[in-house]
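Below is how a single chain appears once it has passed through the pipeline. First comes the sequence as given, then the structure the pipeline wrote out for it. We keep one example in the README because the format questions we get most often are answered faster by looking than by reading.
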Amino acid sequence: MEPVIIVLIILVVLVFIALIKTIQVIPQASAAIVERFGRYTRTLNAGLNIVVPFIDSIRNRIDLREQVVPFPPQPVITQDNLVVNIDTVIYYQVTDARAATYEVASYIQAIEQLTVTTLRNIIGGMDLERTLTSREEINAALRGVLDEATGKWGIRVNRVELKAIEPPTSIQDSMEKQMRADRDKRAAILTAEGIRQSQILTAEGEKQSAILRAEGEAKAAALRAEGEAQAIRTVFESIHAGDPDQKLLSYQYLQMLPKIAEGDANKLWIVPSEIGDALKGLSGAIGNFGPMPSGGSNGGSTPPSPRTPNDDRRERPSID
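Resulting structure:
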């Protein structure tokens, strides 16, 4: 009985192993390559698949999702003989599992080497300045070459990115000094422009202020002159309307004499020649003032008695 039990146990184990090898479950977004006696038979897609046990075998399981592979920095020589280190990132996707398995031994290594050689060809035709400012151009050119070369491998390169472009240390120092000098230059230019604009605005303000001040002074002077002219005209018209005689004018002239002599600085003043005429007119006017002659009993007039020079001096008021 013991040999029979052992045989049954062996058969159960073989059946279990056969079932495991027969039923193959492939995850979503994956594929499996099936070989029969070492030859490609078919590609298993996602889901439950049945294979012949001990005859069919799974050669390779491939992830069909988009993959991201960063490559280490690669030294590249530019057109102006400068060595720069460039980091790249490749976004690719397997579109044909059979081609990716049988057309190339290691498509990751093949893509890396193709990326390095293509990048050196592209950067070799550019100088350093263009290399630093033409990332989009380099990415597009690199992607075109890689997509064309990897198509027969069942690979589609979706995107190529340059992570970093590192020039030599000496070049970085020189670039930093140049950028610092450019920033200082721009700052100096902006400062000078600000000072110039400020001076222009200040000068314009002073000019406008001077113009307005001059216009105000001119208008004020014109108004003052017009007022003085109006006052003189009014006085002149009043004088002519009042028709003053020589006696009144002489009296007004004498009243103005003390005002001419006012002031502490007036040590010497000159009497004009017209003062004699004024005094004569005023003394004549005063001399004519006297008692009115009284009439007689018969209503007749009696001639005044003659006056002596002493009487004239007594009646005349003194003039200071």
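DSSP finds nine helices and eight strands in the chain.

See the next section for the split statistics.
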